[in-house]
Design a protein that fits this description.
The protein is an all-alpha fold and about 140 residues long. The protein has helices at about 1-55, 55-60, 60-90, 95-135. The protein contains 4 helices and no strands.
Length: about 140
């Protein structure tokens, strides 16, 4: 009977160790995924800026510029989140992990702020477009 208890304890230790290894592996994959998100976000910001540099209509519209500013702010937040998540994954030092969490959370808040700015500009562009379409459809 004692042998069965010892085997059970050993199995639990192995399962715990396997779970910790799996969690670490998944956390590293999350870090990679967050960096991929940053690359996509950064590319969006660059491409929207290029479109604005080519299109006078977009460049001169304050709401379109606001959308682009919001996307850039989100990119900065995504970069900070990527740095913070990576910092948490690559160390076992509790203090450094805590600092990584702070950076990640700051990045999340910056992204929220950028999203609000982008959404506000997008809502204004949409309202203007709807008003323009309604004016074209109106026949007295």
């Amino acid at each position: 009977m004692t042998s069965q208890v010892e085997n059970s304890k050993e199995t639990k230790k192995n399962n715990t160790s396997d779970n910790e290894d799996l969690i670490l592996q998944l956390e590293k994959q999350v870090s990679i995924a967050v960096w991929i998100q940053f690359i996509g976000q950064f590319m969006e910001a660059i491409l929207l800026s290029k479109i604005a540099s080519i299109s006078e209509e977009i460049r001169s519209d304050p709401n379109e510029r606001q959308i682009i500013h919001g996307v850039w702010i989100q990119s900065i937040g995504q970069l900070l989140e990527s740095i913070g998540v990576t910092q948490q994954v690559i160390t076992s030092d509790d203090y450094i992990q805590l600092k990584g969490q702070e950076i990640t959370t700051l990045g999340d808040w910056i992204q929220v702020f950028g999203t609000l700015i982008e959404a506000q500009g997008g809502s204004r562009v949409l309202a203007e477009e709807i008003a323009r379409m309604e004016a074209e459809l109106f026949i007295p």
